[in-house]
C-alpha cells in the first residue's frame, strides 16, 4: 500500500544500502567479484567508472555483452546471483554486518514524522540487501524497496522506489548515498543528495547518522 494514501506527503527520503545504512561495501564487492570468477573464470574489471550502470545487474550485463556471452546470458545471471547470495549469507553468518552508526535510530525517528515517506533504493539485488539490513539490525519493515531485481539502471531503481512509496505524486526527494554514481543519479533526477562517508566529495556530507540534527537539516526538516 502506498504510504501517501494515509496522509499528505510533503517530502520523500530515500536510502542506499551498502556504505550508507550498512558498512558492507567491501563485503559486497568481494563476494561479487568472487561469484563472477567462480561462474565464469573471469577477473572482473573493478574500475567501476567503465560501467554504464553501477548495479549488481548492470555490471554483470555489461560484462556478458562485452565478452560475447549473450547466448548464455540467462543462465549466467541466475548462477552468478545464486553464488553471490550464498557467499553473502555465509559471510554474514560468520561476521554479522555493522550498521553505519545511528542508521537504525535515524530511520525510526523519520518514521514518526508526519507528511514524510521513506524508501530504500539499492543497486544490489533484493535478497542480499535484505540479508545485510537484517544482519545489521536495521528494520525496514513496511518501507518500500527497489533493487537490481527491478532494473539494472540506478536511476530507474530510484524512480521505482519513489513510485512504490508515493505513487505519481510529485514531492521533493532527499537521497542518502555514499557513491559518486549516487550523486550523479540525484543530479539527473533533481533529488537532494546527502553524502554519507567520504568515498566522494559533496557539500552536504555526514560521516554517519549519529548527528541526526545535521542529517535532518540537510533534508530540510
Automatic annotation (TrEMBL):
Pfam family, one: Hydrolase
Protein origin, superkingdom: Bacteria
Protein name (database record): Haloacid dehalogenase
Gene3D superfamilies with a match to the protein in the record: HAD superfamily/HAD-like, Putative phosphatase, domain 2
InterPro entries per the UniProt record, alphabetical: HAD-like_sf, HAD_sf, PGP-like_dom2
Amino acid at each position: 500500500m502506498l504510504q501517501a494514501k494515509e496522509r499528505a506527503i510533503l517530502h520523500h527520503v530515500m536510502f542506499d544500502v551498502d556504505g550508507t545504512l550498512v558498512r558492507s561495501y567491501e563485503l559486497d564487492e568481494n563476494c561479487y567479484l568472487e561469484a563472477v570468477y567462480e561462474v565464469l573464470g573471469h577477473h572482473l574489471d573493478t574500475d567501476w567508472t567503465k560501467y554504464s550502470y553501477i548495479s549488481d545487474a548492470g555490471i554483470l550485463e555489461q560484462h556478458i555483452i562485452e565478452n560475447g556471452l549473450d547466448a548464455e546470458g540467462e543462465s549466467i545471471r541466475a548462477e552468478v546471483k545464486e553464488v553471490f547470495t550464498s557467499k553473502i549469507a555465509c559471510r554474514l553468518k560468520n561476521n554479522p554486518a555493522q550498521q553505519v552508526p545511528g542508521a537504525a535510530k535515524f530511520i525510526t525517528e523519520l518514521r514518526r514524522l508526519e507528511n514524510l515517506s521513506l524508501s530504500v533504493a539499492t543497486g544490489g539485488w533484493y535478497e542480499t540487501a535484505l540479508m545485510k539490513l537484517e544482519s545489521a539490525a536495521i528494520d525496514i519493515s513496511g518501507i518500500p524497496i527497489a533493487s537490481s531485481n527491478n532494473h539494472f539502471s540506478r536511476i530507474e531503481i530510484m524512480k521505482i522506489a519513489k513510485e512504490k512509496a508515493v505513487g505519481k505524486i510529485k514531492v521533493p526527494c532527499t537521497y542518502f548515498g555514499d557513491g559518486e554514481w549516487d550523486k550523479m543519479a540525484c543530479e539527473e533526477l533533481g533529488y537532494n543528495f546527502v553524502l554519507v562517508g567520504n568515498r566522494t566529495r559533496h557539500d552536504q556530507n555526514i560521516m554517519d547518522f549519529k548527528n541526526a540534527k545535521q542529517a535532518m537539516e540537510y533534508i530540510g526538516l
